[in-house]
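seq as requested:
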Amino acid sequence: MISAPPAPTVQCPEGPCFVVDGRGDIDFERSMSGTRRCTLYALGRGHFEAMTVYDAQGRVWRATGAEPVERLAGWKRLLAKTVYNPVVEVRVTWSEPAHAEIGLLARAYERAVKRDDDVLTQFVGAKELIGRVRAAKDFAAMVAVWEWMCADAE
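struct tokens:
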């Protein structure tokens, strides 16, 4: 019996992290793994290649590619552009992380707030949120801003 080759060991960001997608939306994740989930359509449109991750160690990560964990039939890829759009598990590959000043994360967060469609600002005012983001001097302070922003949601 022939078995599949082992999955490559891929260095990936560890949580906690702020994740900025290709549209500029921001999210906070307490933990990350080498695999993620997304729709097949999003995978085909390069969802992960447009992702930037900021970690607590002051590094910025950029995804360089993503492949489904399980081999997919061609017809599934074709149908993903129609009403059939399954969620698949993917293995993301990352570029070597670079050092990032907290200001880089703050600017991404501020841009996300400015283009927000009442998700980040559902329970807080945009001006106050941007003020707190600008005042944050390190990653822990940025997490505190996120937790303050989400406090009323829970």
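Residues 102-114 form the longest helix (13 residues).
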